[in-house]
Amino acid sequence: MVQDWVIQEISGSDLGDERLNRRLGTMLAALAERPGKSLPTAFQDWSATKAAYRFFANANVSEDKILEGHFSATAQRFDATAGPVLILQDTTEFSFTRASPEKIGFTKVSTGGREKTGRFRLHTLCGLLMHASLAVTPEGLPLGLTAAKFWSRSKFKGTAALKRRINPTRMPIEQKESMRWLDNLRRSCDLTGAPERCVHVGDRESDIYELYCLANELGTNFLVRSCVDRLAEDGNTTIAQVMATTEPCGIHTIRFRDGKGKLQEARLSIRYATMTVCPPIGKQKKYKHQHLQVIHAQEVDPPGDRAAIMWKLLTNLPVSSYEDAVGKLEWYALRWKIETFFRTLKTGCKLEELRLTTAGRLANCIALCCVVAWRISWITMLRRELPGTSPSTVFTDVERQILEQFTPIRKLSTSPDLDFYIRAVARLGGYLDRASDAPPGTTVIWRGMSRLADIVTGALSYQITEEKIYG
Question: Which ranges carry the Transposase Tn5 dimerisation domain (predicted)?
Fold first, then answer.
């Protein structure tokens, strides 16, 4: 039986055939029960696995149609919230090893071992790219994807080779892959129907002047990390020069974990200013000047064992105080949520281990797993942000009974809440649940959900066997 959440995520999808629509639901449920397992393991038998392969290869099935229902469900969750919603944008790559890589495409040129001449061996990586937009509340609860774009390249020469032939700053944005940032911004605004509530957040790759102009045209907001020292004011100065004369407004302390998982603390000197930002020289006749806010956060007295923290943010949101500037920094820090989503998608769902042979089939499977990865992220954050949510929203009656039975009596409360069940799932995934442990993350949640599905299957099989024997 397909669970209610699966029906909600596919009800807006129409593949043109009711059988395909039903197959979409059963496949999503199977992948959600066993994230990270191979397709034969997830679908349990040869008949269901063969049907899944045919589904991915069907000409009437595409990633847009698969995600159509999820986009619709995201819009409903967006409408159910109040206030601003962060639309996190980023790109990720999926790499594959294939005997015929041309059937999938290429992503980039990679450096391998050295040749006898001493030069590094270069080779193109086979794979797909995905640019996604993830809606997240200011508290960090993921509402779902609002847009996604998949593509690969028939060949890849590298950015340096292209720059020898053309000046990328003078190319129209429509002829660049960077257009994906603008496409997703427009699609997200259209989906939500409330562009004024959207805050589109991107890393340094999203520092695109055309994006600023499009956001102004659509009446939406953006918050991006700058990588270009653009011309400012009357065009005779730059953003960096203006900010160098701006006095700090305060010190903000942040705590984070470094690449080794060690807890770190940093003190950031905050500066902000409002200024006119000019278009690139080659595009000044086409685009208007933009009135933007600039926020710089620079670490004070950084340690010698790591690089100093330096964030340079651009936004069209109002910033008139130290509190406003810190609030925007905290919003930008939530951009890490989409990195966690990608990690769940790649490591949790193990998509790079798929053996599908064409780009279209891979894109269809990845699109379906996007819904699974979102739900894992949603469950992980739901207990933190909305602990009063009813457990029945996430778990079935059978799942709750099993989790109660698997939980030590000393930890069992009289009326288990959502936190109880999610921690029980996390323990199935290896979470120790010690008093000093951080809240469970996506890794132990996806492991626990997979193990819970196996336990449920075993319990139901035992029940059926008992009924056959004893009537």
Answer: 371-460
Tokens at 53, concatenated = 């392969």
Q: What is the rounded distance in angstroms from the CA atom of residue 232 to the CA atom of residue 240?
A: 9
Nearest-Å Rg of the Cα atoms of the chain is 25
Per-residue pLDDT of the chain (471 residues; tens, 9 = 90+): 568 899 999 999 999 999 999 999 999 999 999 888 889 999 988 999 999 999 999 999 999 999 999 999 999 999 999 999 999 999 999 999 888 888 898 888 776 666 666 676 667 889 999 999 999 999 999 999 999 999 988 765 555 554 555 666 667 788 888 999 999 999 999 999 999 999 999 999 999 999 999 999 999 999 999 999 999 999 899 999 999 999 999 999 988 877 666 788 899 999 999 999 999 988 888 999 999 999 999 999 888 878 889 999 999 999 999 999 999 999 999 999 999 999 999 998 999 999 998 999 999 999 999 999 999 999 999 988 888 889 988 998 999 999 988 876 555 556 788 989 999 999 999 998 888 888 899 999 999 998 998 898 888 776 667 666 765
Q: Which amino acid is at 83?
A: G
Written as six digits, the tokens of 362 are 């891979």
Contact 313, 226 (CB under 8 A): yes
134: closest CA among 379, 374, 344, 368? 374
Q: Is residue 328 a contact partner of residue 312, using CB atoms and an 8 Å limit? A: no
Distance CA 266, CA 187 (A): 37
Residue spans per domain, the chain: 387-471
CATH number of 387-471: 1.10.740.10
